[in-house]
């Protein structure tokens, strides 16, 4: 059935997304460790603004808001993870 095929494709994409998310968080952990050692703050607003602007420019216009929401969530989780590293 065509719907099953499409859902299989979605499942595969979700696996890839989660794999990339874990990879991003592993790099974020290294950034958090560096900030801890250097006494730097977690938040870098300029960097976040640049990431979101680049995301909006990369996708079709009708997906701009969704792309920013997706990356904003990844960034929020990234900051929370780094806060844990700085506390620990
Ligand atoms: C990862 C960093 O820490 C924070 C999280 C960011 C992110 O997840 O992309 C970007 C900027 C910072 O607010 C960083 O400073 O590069």
Tell me the distance between the termini: 50 Å
The tally of helices reads: 3
Query: Taking Cα atoms only, what radius of gyration do you get, to the nearest Å?
Result: 16 Å
Mean pLDDT: 98
Q: Largest sheet at a glance?
A: none
Describe the structure.
Its EC number is 5.4.99.5. Keywords: Isomerase. With 88 residues, this protein is mainly alpha-helical. The chain has a domain at 44-88. 85% of the residues lie in helices and 0% in strands. The protein has 3 helices and no strands. The protein has helices at residues 2-38, 45-58, 64-87. α1 (2-38) crosses α3 (64-87) and α2 (45-58) packs antiparallel against α3 (64-87). The chain is flat and about 55 Å long. The N and C termini lie far apart (50 Å). The relative contact order is 0.13. The model has no long low-confidence stretch (mean pLDDT 98).
């Amino acid at each position: 059935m065509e719907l099953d095929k499409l859902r299989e494709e979605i499942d595969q994409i979700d696996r890839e997304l989660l794999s990339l998310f874990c990879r991003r968080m592993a790099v974020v952990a290294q950034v958090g460790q560096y900030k801890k050692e250097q006494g730097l703050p977690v938040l870098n607003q300029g960097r976040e603004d640049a990431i979101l602007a680049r995301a909006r420019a990369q996708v079709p216009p009708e997906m701009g808001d969704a792309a920013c929401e997706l990356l904003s969530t990844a960034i929020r989780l990234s900051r929370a993870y780094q806060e844990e590293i700085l506390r620990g």
